[in-house]
Each structure stands twice: as structure tokens, then as C-alpha cells.
Amino acid sequence: MLWLALLGGVTGIDTVSCVQSMISRPIVAGPLAGALLGDPVSGMYAGVLLELVSLNQLPIGANRGWDTGPATVAASAVVALQASPGPVTWIVAGGFGVLVGWVGGWTVHVMRQGTARMVSDERRGSITPRALSVRHLSALTIDFFRAAGLTLLALFCGSFVLASAEAEPAAAGSAAAVVLLAFVGLTLGADVRMIAKGRRVAIAFAAGLVVSMMIALWRG
Amino acid sequence: MLLLRSLVIQGSWNYSTMQGAGLGFALIPVLRLLYGGGRGAELDEAVGRHSRFFNANPYLSTVAIASIARMESEGADAEQIERFKGALVSPLGSLGDRLVWARWRPLCSLLALAVFVLGASWWVASGLFIVLYNLVAVPLRVWGLRLGWKEGRDVGRALMGSPLRRLPDRLTIPIAIIGGALLPPLALAVGGASGVGPTPVIGVALALTVVGYWRPAFAGRLAALGLVLGSLVFAALEKTVW
Predict the structure, then answer these.
(1) Chain A: closest CA distance from residue B19 (Å)
(2) Rounded CA separation A125/A120 (Å)
(3) How many Cα atoms sit within 13 Å of A17 on the Cβ side?
């Protein structure tokens, strides 16, 4: 649990505050969280789902998106701790991850307001290097503990989610697979359109889709 | 030292000064060298001046850090440096955001997703994403530092002539092709458990992709909300029905 919280903290600061090497992306944070629980593949599946949701989220200016790192760690834990995860588990974990991400985005917003009070003093004409360093690095540390705390809280709530998604009957699996299919279709179309626009893009998107579809159908 | 400090330039990102405190923090070693070693009113004033409002794409913030360091070392006056900083915000934000956030990161993500869906193991897909992404992100920081130091106050002109300006547009077509190509294998992977054949699975996914492409903002919100509601419904049914 503590290792997962630590990973949540590290991925939390990687999103904006520190380095931005993108280990906070679901496609990386998911399998890392899964690996800590002994099942990186399940973590990867949760990561793929959440990567699709967050692909078109661009951290430009003061844009406040959802907090992918802690959300993915929590969602991956839900999947990785299942004995035999299937479509129901993917949906429950994915939905739970999105919820944690939304809460995380709100905590980031509150933290940024606090940071503004801490580091910006309009009347200030000068500041010692030491004072600035302390304020700057304190803000970074607060972000780490925010993300780690959020992950810990999410893991605690995740234990209840886990209990509700234990056994997967076939009928539930089929229905869940259809929901997942709808989710994949909607997000992928929206992702590409929000990243790149224009006629040439639409043609390229359609070309990639048609060729891949023909190969998939040909292979059965 | 400047490069290392640039890694945490957003450590205290906030709605008021944005990266301001981070820029001041990154410049401290240079300012210490230029303003009497370690302490003094002049040094404090310079640190205060550089920790007011500033914002740029984090990867290209090194351009600003190095060019401001160069101007400070040349003895440019404070007002001139402030104007220069203000003028850098927009081009560094625009160029970096378009290149890294809007193009390079999605391209790396889609490639990694495609590799995984086509059967590669998790570590290959994740590793591909991290390595590929940072193959651009890390050299971009170093390039920015070199460019800023070399050009100083003329860095704006150098940025205008940089080949990086054309790169975002060139990445749109690969993103679209990979995005399109990813759909059928992904649909088959998740839709396989529904018990229907590959043709209806791809057909449904295709129809919804068209909806997503046509109304992206609506579809994005609907998909995220659908996932949350779906999870609640399935969790509730699990308890009561199944």
C-alpha cells in the first residue's frame, strides 16, 4: 500500500511539478502499479483504458485536467488484485480511475491557489535566494504529499470497489464488453479530432482505419 | 546546474505568477555569480525581479532561462530584461505546446497503444512510450539552453527561423493514420468478450468513432461519464442481480 502511495506521489509530481518524464501517463503508471502488485499486464489494461480518456487532454496554460498518475495507480490496483479480471472489472476500475482523477484535478486546483499565496507577493520587491528556494521546493513537496495522500485514500476506497467486482458472470461480461466497445469507439474518434484537425487529417484517419479494418477482417 | 533546475521550473506553478517562482529558482546560481557571491540587497532584488509572472512550455523554458542568464551577464538593464521576458512568454508557450503536448505526446501514446494491442508485451509498449517521448523531450531542453545562451536577446529571431516551427504540422498525418489503424484491433480486443463476431464489433466501433470524430468534445465527455456510470451500474448489479 505504501509503495503504491509512493508511486502515486511520484507520478503526481511528474505530471506538472517535476521533470515531466511522463511516467505519470496511464500507459506507464498502470503497468508500474500492476508490477508492484505482481500483475503488470492487468495494470497495463487499466492504463490503456485511462490513456484513451486522457489522450486529448492537453496541459496548456492554466488548463486543469484530471490527475492521471494517482488515478491510474488506484485503477490498476483494482484490476491487478482481481483473481481473473474481465470486462466488468475493466469498466469498474476505469470508472473508478476517472472519478479519482476528477477529485485529483480538484485537489490540484486548491493546491495551486495555496501555492499562489505562498510564492507570489505582489508588494514584494526582493527576496533572498534561500527564501525563494524554500517556498518553491515546499510547493513541490506539498504536491508530492497531495498526490500520495490522494492515492492512499483512493486505494482505501478501491478496496470496496474491489469487493463489488469480484465474480464475473458471462452475461455481465458480454454487456460490459459492449460498453467498452462503445467507449473505445467514441474516445478514439474524439482523441484524433481534438489533437489534429483538417481535411487531410480526416482522410489520413480514414485511410488508416480502412486499411487496418481490412487486415483485421481478412485475418478473421 | 541550469538544466537540472529547469526540471523543476513548475514546482510551484500557480494561477498568479505561474512559472515565475520557478524561473527565479532556476536563475539563482547565475544571479549569485553576478551579484556578489551569495548575499546582498542587489542579489535579493534580482531574485525578486525574476520570480514575478512568467510562463512558457516547460521543455522550452530553458530557452528563457539561458537567454535571461546571458542578458544578465551582459549587464542589460532590469526593465529591458522584463520586457524581453514578457515577449518570450507567447512564442515559447505556443511552439512548445503545439510540438510537445499537442503532437509528440499523443503520437508516442498512440504508437505505444498500437504496439500493445498488436501483441507486444507491456514493458515493450510502456518502454517504447517513455524512451520515444524523452528522446525528444530531453534534447529539447538541452537545445533550448544552448540556443538561449548563444543568441541571448536575439533568441526570438532564432526561434522564428527554427525548423521546430514546422514540425508540429508534419506530425498530424502520422497521428491520424495511427489513430485510425488502432481502432479495429482495439475494438476486437475489447469487443471479443461480447460474444458477437468481428464484423459487427468493428461496425459498432466504426459508427461510434465517426460520432466521436464529428462531435469530439461531446463524445469525450460522454465516454468518460459513460465509463463512470457504467462502473456504478455494474458494481450495483454485481451486488444485487448477479
Answers:
(1) 10
(2) 11
(3) 26
Selecting from A32, A132, A207 the residue whose C-beta is nearest the C-beta of B51 gives: A132
For chain A, 220 residues long, give each residue's pLDDT as a single digit of tens.
899 999 999 999 999 999 999 999 999 999 999 999 999 999 999 999 999 989 888 877 667 678 999 999 999 999 988 877 888 888 889 999 999 999 999 999 999 999 999 987 655 678 999 999 999 999 999 999 999 999 999 999 988 776 655 566 667 778 888 888 888 888 989 988 888 888 999 999 999 999 998 888 887 6
| Cell representation of residue B241 | 442481480
- Is the same domain home to B18 and B78? yes
SS3 B14: strand
Asked if the Cβ–Cβ distance from B193 to A173 is below 8 Å, we say: yes
Cα–Cα dist B131/B104, whole Å = 12
Q: Mark whether B34 and B79 lie in a shared domain.
A: yes
Determine if the pTM surpasses 0.90.
yes
Contact B106 A198 (CB under 8 A): no
Is the domain of B157 the same as that of B175? no
Parent domain of B207: 167-241
Number of domains in chain B: 2
Whether residues B64 and B107 share a domain: the answer is: yes
Domain boundary among the residues B97, B132, B162 is at B162
